[in-house]
Amino acid sequence: MIATPTIPLEAATPAHICPFDQACSYLEAAGKELRLDQGVLEILSHPRKVVTVSIPVKLDNGEVRVLAGHRVQHSNILGPYKGGIRYHPAVTLREVSALAMLMTWKCALLGIPYGGAKGGIAIDPQQYSVGELERITRRYTSELIKDIGPSLDIPAPDMGTSAREMAWMMDTYSVNVGHAVPGVVTGKPLSVGGSLGREKATGRGTMIIVREALADQGRTLAGVRVVIQGFGNVGGAAAELLHQAGAKVIAVSTGTGGVYAADGLDIPALKAYAAENRHHLAGFPNATVITNAELLTLPCDVLIPAALENQITEDNVHQIQAQIIAEAANGPVTLEANRVLEAQGVTVLPDILANAGGVVVSYLEWVQGLSYLFWDEERVNREMEHLMVQAYRQVMQQSKVRQVPLRLAAYTLGVGRVAQALSDRGLYP
Ligand SMILES: NC(=O)C1=CN([C@@H]2O[C@H](COP(=O)(O)OP(=O)(O)OC[C@H]3O[C@@H](n4cnc5c(N)ncnc54)[C@H](O)[C@@H]3O)[C@@H](O)[C@H]2O)C=CC1
Ligand SMILES: O=C(O)CCC(=O)C(=O)O
């Protein structure tokens, strides 16, 4: 049993669905399967560094508010810490710690030379003006100035942040150190050294993994019924690319609910509608309004949760009708629900594989920046696809050889590589 982690359990997080406890349970299962030394597991179950900073911000109405900003650096055994920055009201230190740990295994699984980190601020970005968000982001970056850097810790977008916030972070960091440092963040706008293909990379990666899983079942994307929860950076791109590839995207949702059409939604038109209606999908022509709870239990071939953690739980898992679940979000299926799905033979494509396209193109962006040589989008997509398909095949092979479900197969690969590096570096006797 792994020792109780040092991150305090916030009252708001019920222990049985605490993302950090769940992440530690998966680590423990991988350690058991790999027969890892207890000391190694003990090291890997603790984040290397946890930073919480106060972010004072003057709102447009003159009120001063002090926000808490977290950055958790889980591991830098394989390279610089890497992972997104989340702005969402449900952000907690334990959530960020779990997401940081997932980043470590994800980067190791994909074979990219990074460790894992994640950051977050518990705010609803919709409730702040652009000016307020800029002040919050700049102050957060200044407070982290000694903890981030292009060879130390490289943030990227996650829920509630985008290329815009990355440009502010890059600028604040650069002004503080006295020269332009594009490599301090990825997911930047093209104008400051971003990469073609990064914006849709996570959704594209999910589409590739779904395509490969279907191919293994002798099927193609054509006509496959897909349901997607979340219509933001990841869910929106996945919907668009799957629609383009001939899949029938029958339902999608945002935080305020979703829409359903049995014959498939016109995704480009829905994207335009969502942009015009502040992400409310209700009222989209020729579609039925559904709740997020209803969306998850629709009959479909592929379900893609692309929003928050803990969406498929012991409460709704028995109603899930999808044959394949591709975790575009991080941690959308709870530990208990995962057990049920595995027992029922549902193919669960785990987050550290299914949503890795984003960090892969972040890596390609970082490499292009460091070499001062930028590629066309076709090359970026090709390199990403190569790494995604390679990781997919390794996971399938590991699953077959070890006779374990896909999640445990992915974890054994990711955790095993980090443990090996830990030993080779002599960090553990
Ligand atoms: N942006 C990236 O490159 C990557 C993101 N991810 C993961 O993908 C997930 C989504 O991230 P993004 O698309 O970047 O965020 P986003 O902020 O661009 O979009 C989030 C979407 O989820 C919806 N949403 C929020 N709360 C919801 C709820 N309670 N029920 C249903 N929908 C809800 C929002 O309305 C929005 O459509 C997160 O779990 C994130 O960690 C994973 C890898 C990379
Ligand atoms: O692109 C990145 O560096 C990180 C993306 C991320 O936060 C994630 O994969 O969960």
TrEMBL record:
Q: What GO terms are given for molecular function?
A: glutamate dehydrogenase (NAD+) activity; nucleotide binding
Q: Where is the Glutamate/phenylalanine/leucine/valine/L-tryptophan dehydrogenase C-terminal domain?
A: 195-426
Out of the domains of life, which is the source? Answer: Bacteria
**Is this entry keyworded NAD?**
yes
Pfam families linked to this entry: ELFV_dehydrog, ELFV_dehydrog_N
CDD domains assigned to the protein according to its UniProt record, in alphabetical order: NAD_bind_1_Glu_DH
Catalytic residues (UniProt)? K118
- GO BP annotations listed: L-glutamate catabolic process
Site Important for catalysis: list residues. Answer: D158
Query: Family assignment?
Result: Belongs to the Glu/Leu/Phe/Val dehydrogenases family.
The protein in question is named Glutamate dehydrogenase
| Organism of origin | Nostoc piscinale CENA21
What is the organism lineage in this UniProt record?
A: Bacteria, Bacillati, Cyanobacteriota, Cyanophyceae, Nostocales
